[in-house]
Amino acid sequence: MKDSILNKISGFTAKLTQLKWIQGISRGGMQVMPFIMVGSFASLFAGLQFASYQAFLTSSGLSSCLQWLTNCTTNIIGLLFMYFISKSYAKVLGIDDRNIGIMGISIYLMLCPSIVTDTGVGLSFDYLGAKGVIMAIVLALIIVQLYKYILSKDVKIKLLEGTPDYVSNSFSSILPFVLLALFALVVRFVFLFTPYKSIFDAFYAILQIPLTALVGENIFSQLILNIIAQSLWVFGIHGSSIIDTLRGPIMFGLDGAQQAAYAIGKPLPNIMGMAFSYMYYTAIMYPAVAIAVCCFAKSKRMKMVGKMALPASFFGISEPLVFGLPIVFNPILAIPFIFIPSIIMGIAYLITYLGLVSAPIGVAVFNIPLAINGILNGSWTIAVLQIILLILSVIMWMPFIKFADKKALEEEKVGELKSDE
């Protein structure tokens, strides 16, 4: 029965991770991370609210430089997602065209809404950033599939044999891009006759706002997703990578809104985001387990695992604990591993919602130890809450570690008796 359930779960997750569009989104999204991190720190340094510091930034001209750095990184993550997912998805599908990312950006801009000013018609920047992330993902998948279909029909300019590859490759992209541009033109024209006036406005109103409210900003949805991710870990499946592939773009979008508001001194619009999730979930979960093992375990095996895993746990590395204790296929440790992180995150959300602790400003803090990542997210109060929740988490882990350790001690004694014989 157990093997049957495990095989079904493993088979389902294996099929999910092998889906080419999932691979394209996952690989492309990871390539956006350097830009998000640079923009995050630019927003952090631009928004530190100290009068003398802000006066220095203004007088030296650094304020505008930092804002421009943010504008060219996190404020264009819609474009970045479009570019990298287009390239990654094309590579997964076996399409060898270096121009596909640039084509994607061009199509994206063709469909963006325009604004009318006294000097003429210009491009609206509203959807270049966080507001355009979901649209960018969907559009990248569609454009790459259309491009693949066009190539399958052999619609391209063919040059004479002996023409250098870099020349023939450039010409082979012309006709497919013309057809994609015509497709974008038709879509843009059709949406002019709708109440939304553009596909971006329609998509944002119909799908992205409800999806963000349902998945991104909803703490209960986040806790359910966390429980699913932790449950998959218990079966030896990297649940976080699967769940974060699906919710990551929404969460990064929320972080982008936080950074943009903080950089210009406006109230933070959200609590949830990838920064909040990492700080109160991953950054606390693994150190808590390692500390609990080091403090309460007496068996040689568990103490050794705890000491080896402790330094790495502060940097979000879980494998020594998950496979070393082990937590995988361990019903005793599976219970706290599945539920305690979500309890801690729920407490953090409630305290932040009540205004007792500042909301994070959305700085990407992956693999940065707790307390430090709290301060980087704009407030020492976050760091204090992290430490308190870490202590609480260790206390919650204590009875489970002691129970598991008792069994480990019994096994060690049996082993010693057998060796004596």
Task: Reconstruct the topology from this structure.
Layout: H1 2-18, H2 20-47, H3 51-60, H4 62-71, H5 77-92, H6 100-111, E1 114-117, E2 120-123, H7 133-152, H8 165-172, H9 174-191, H10 199-216, H11 219-234, H12 239-263, H13 274-296, H14 300-313, H15 319-324, H16 331-353, H17 372-376, H18 380-420
Antiparallel strand pairs: 1-2
What's the main sheet like? 2 strands, antiparallel
C-alpha Rg (nearest Å): 25 Å
Assign a percent range to the helix content.
Answer: over 70%
Order of helices and strands: HHHHHHEEHHHHHHHHHHHH
Helical stretch count?
18
Physical arrangement of strands within the biggest beta sheet: 1-2
Defining key terms:
two-stranded antiparallel sheet; 421 residues; 18 helices; 2 strands; mainly alpha; globular
Structure, explained:
- By secondary structure, the chain is mainly alpha-helical.
- Helix content is 74%, strand content 2%.
- The chain has a two-stranded antiparallel ribbon with strand order 1-2.
- Helix 13 crosses helix 16 and helix 13 runs parallel beside helix 18.
- The longest helix is centred in the last third of the chain and has 41 residues.
- The relative contact order is 0.09.
- The mean pLDDT is 83.
